[in-house]
């Protein structure tokens, strides 16, 4: 992004253009200094009155423990109530946390009400008790890109605390997930130079042992659950994980039972060194086998556990990920190694959009914005530092993920959430596009090498459209009704700015900054 120096102050030119240009003069916009560069906040702050967020549909399995914290913005204290809550579930009116046991199979329409001294809000949530989980893409945080082989019980608790105090949980972030490096390495490995993670890998009964940075897994999950949040763990079908710590090879059922009894709600299962056990180029059956084994084991646990397949998109995993019990699967390698190519990664992921549906999500990897670390060529990890992405790139990134119905798993530093990062992560209208109950992935309309639209059909009949510009200059980008198979007057709402733009008969066009996006919702006009 180009910068201009005035009296020694670095000004971001795009910020400058946005502030000065009358056609783009949005009152909610605010330029703040985050780290190194100014970033423009374009989303209005949430109001003090309650605003209930979160998915409209929620899948869970009969008989299993139920835990759901109603995501709700607004000044605390808020008092919550609900009509239509099935027997077996109870709502804490002060915290908005619903707990209990999932009722028998069926759809339960629950009307949630939230009130504070400034106002009230209501929202319908359909609880679908049945076989399906993850009816909308999972949202949460993962430790990898910030803590790597430094992760500990303490850092997990810190992340859970920050998810609540930052307001992320109030817009729907829910899972607090440990990545690699919680188990124990049997011997030294380039990533485990730190000897505190080396030791006995399983007890005499074969139960997997956490390393000494995780003194009591059950207490850790209990702490996270007490906040109404959920928590995830990581393993590998191989003997060892990517970092060389113990995996689940030949202990799959035992580990699934252990993860469940510890209280985990999510498992990322990372291929890593499984190839070493095969000693040949894997066939589709080879690729599927370990996931079938773990998928079955998880389904038999008395807990709802989201199954996240991580095998970098091999064997067209999107075609069979759901069949082996997966809820989401990575469609490519580690995004941390190609962050500068996030547009390409997204466009690649969008090619598999046909497989995106409730309970079955393509995963282009984590949200790498804010403060993130990096992995070095010598197998060391750098401490978190500000994301190299510009403000516009971060808006584009989040828009792409939401328009593709991707899991929204932030993997930056939860202790360094600045105003700008939270603004990008927490826009409720943008998130609503991701969490739309139809579960569609947007389709790409390429206009030129640098300009494209991503068009996502939404459950209420409207369309979310991202108008993207990957070029180095601000350009006009248009979306016309014919290419959306629409005709007649439509209302257009700018989702980042949460602002009605008016009604348009044939098309909408707008100046889009370099590497940037304008994300709109286009709905039939009702005079
Ligand atoms: C692989 C995965 C990453 C992360 C690391 C942990 O590279 O793709 O997401 O889990 O392993 O070692």
Quick structural overview:
With 527 residues, this protein is an alpha/beta fold.
Structural features, described:
There is one protein chain. The chain is of the alpha/beta class. It has four domains: 39 residues, no CATH class; 79 residues, Immunoglobulin-like; 233 residues, Aldolase class I (TIM Barrel), CATH 3.20.20.70; 82 residues, Golgi alpha-mannosidase II (Immunoglobulin-like). It is globular. It binds alpha-D-galactopyranose. Alpha-D-galactopyranose binds next to loops.
Count of distinct strands: 31
From the coordinates shown, what is the CATH architecture of the largest domain?
Alpha-Beta Barrel
- Helix percent band: 10-25%
Our estimate of the beta-strand percent is: 25-35%
CATH superfamily of the largest domain: Aldolase class I
Largest sheet: 8 strands, parallel
What Rg is obtained from the alpha carbons, in whole angstroms?
23 Å
């Amino acid at each position: 992004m180009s910068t201009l120096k005035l009296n020694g102050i670095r000004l971001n030119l795009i910020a400058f253009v946005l502030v000065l240009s009358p056609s783009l003069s949005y009152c909610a916009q605010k330029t703040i200094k985050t780290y190194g560069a100014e970033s423009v906040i374009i989303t209005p702050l949430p109001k003090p009155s309650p605003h209930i967020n979160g998915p409209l549909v929620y899948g869970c399995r009969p008989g299993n423990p139920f835990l759901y914290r109603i995501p709700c913005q607004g000044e605390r204290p808020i008092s919550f109530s609900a009509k239509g809550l099935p027997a077996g579930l109870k709502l804490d009116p002060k915290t908005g946390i619903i707990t209990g046991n999932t009722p028998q199979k069926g759809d339960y329409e629950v009307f949630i009400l939230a009130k504070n001294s400034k106002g009230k809000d209501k929202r319908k949530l359909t609880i679908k008790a049945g076989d399906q989980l993850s009816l909308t893409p999972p949202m949460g945080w993962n430790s990898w890109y910030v803590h790597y082989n430094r992760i500990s019980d303490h850092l997990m608790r810190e992340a859970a605390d920050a998810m609540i105090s930052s307001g992320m949980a109030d817009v729907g972030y829910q899972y607090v997930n440990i990545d690699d490096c919680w188990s124990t390495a049997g011997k030294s490995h380039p990533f485990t130079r730190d000897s505190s993670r080396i030791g006995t890998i399983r007890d005499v009964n074969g139960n997997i042992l956490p390393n000494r940075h995780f003194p009591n897994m059950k207490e850790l999950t209990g702490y996270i659950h007490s906040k109404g949040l959920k928590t995830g763990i990581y393993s590998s079908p191989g003997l060892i994980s990517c970092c060389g710590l113990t995996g689940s090879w030949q202990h799959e059922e035992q580990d699934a039972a252990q993860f469940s009894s510890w209280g985990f709600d999510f498992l990322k299962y990372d291929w890593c060194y499984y190839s070493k056990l095969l000693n040949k180029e894997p066939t589709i059956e080879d690729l599927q086998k370990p996931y079938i084994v773990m998928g079955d084991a998880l389904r038999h646990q008395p807990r709802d556990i989201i199954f996240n397949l991580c095998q970098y998109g091999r064997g067209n995993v999107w075609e069979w990920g759901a069949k082996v019990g997966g809820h989401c699967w990575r469609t490519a390698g580690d995004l941390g190694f190609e962050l500068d190519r996030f547009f390409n990664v997204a466009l690649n992921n969008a090619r598999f959009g046909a497989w995106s549906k409730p309970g079955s999500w393509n995963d282009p990897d984590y949200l790498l914005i804010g403060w993130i670390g990096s992995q070095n060529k010598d197998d060391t990890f750098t401490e978190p530092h500000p994301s190299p992405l510009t403000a516009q790139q971060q808006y584009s990134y989040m828009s792409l993920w939401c328009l593709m119905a991707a899991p929204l798993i932030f993997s930056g530093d939860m202790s360094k959430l600045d105003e700008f990062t939270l603004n990008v992560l927490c826009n409720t209208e943008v998130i609503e596009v991701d969490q739309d109950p139809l579960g569609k992935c947007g389709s790409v309309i390429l206009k030129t090498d640098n300009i494209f639209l991503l068009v996502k059909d939404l459950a209420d009949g409207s369309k979310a459209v991202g108008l993207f510009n990957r070029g180095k200059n601000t350009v006009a980008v248009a979306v016309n009704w014919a290419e959306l198979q629409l005709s007649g007057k439509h209302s257009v709402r700018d989702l980042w700015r949460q602002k009605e733009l008016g009604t348009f008969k044939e098309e909408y066009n707008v100046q889009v900054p370099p590497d940037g996006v304008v994300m709109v919702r286009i709905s039939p006009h009702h005079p």
